[in-house]
Design brief:
Shape: globular
Mean pLDDT: 86
Number of strands: 0
Largest sheet: none
Strand content: under 5%
C-alpha cells in the first residue's frame, strides 16, 4: 500500500512540475527541439532548464538510495535484468524520439495535458493507448 501512495504522490508532484514548467505544451518542447531557430533567436531553452532541475533532484536522490539497504515503501530494489542493449530497446527509443519530435508530446506531459481537453492531445493519448494494447497483444504474447 505504501508503494501505491508513494507512486501517487510522485505522479502528482510530477504533474504539478509539468504544469509549472509549461512542459505539457507541445509548442514549448518543439521550440526546444528546433535548434535551427537558434541563430534567429526563436529557439526555446526552457526544456534544458527543466532537465537541469530534474538532474539537481535526481542525482542526490540516487546517492541517498545507494546508501540504503532497502527502498522506501517496498521490500527490495528492482534492477534491470538486461545485460546489454537489445534491438527492441533501440527501436522503441527511436519511435519515442520520432514521436516526441513530430508532435511535442511524450507520455507524461500528454497525460498531464488531458485536462485541457484539446482534441490533438486526446488523439495522441488514444493513439498511445492503442500502441500499448497492440504491443501487449503482439509482442508480449509471442
Amino acid at each position: 500500500m505504501n508503494a501505491i501512495i508513494i507512486g501517487a504522490v510522485s505522479g502528482i508532484v510530477f504533474g504539478i512540475g509539468l504544469a509549472i514548467s509549461g512542459m505539457y505544451d507541445p509548442a514549448v518542447v518543439l521550440g526546444f527541439l528546433d535548434v535551427g531557430a537558434m541563430p534567429s533567436g526563436g529557439w526555446d531553452p526552457s526544456l534544458a532548464f527543466v532537465m537541469v532541475g530534474a538532474l539537481a533532484v535526481t542525482i542526490p536522490a540516487f546517492a541517498f538510495a545507494r546508501k540504503r539497504s532497502t527502498p522506501i515503501g517496498t521490500s527490495a530494489f528492482q534492477a534491470p535484468s538486461a545485460a546489454g542493449i537489445e534491438p527492441r530497446l533501440l527501436v522503441g527509443s527511436a519511435l519515442f524520439g520520432v514521436g516526441w519530435g513530430l508532435v511535442g508530446y511524450c507520455p507524461g506531459p500528454a497525460l498531464a495535458a488531458l485536462g485541457l481537453g484539446q482534441p490533438s492531445n486526446l488523439a495522441f493519448v488514444g493513439a498511445m493507448a492503442a500502441g500499448m494494447i497492440l504491443h501487449r497483444v503482439t509482442v508480449e504474447k509471442s
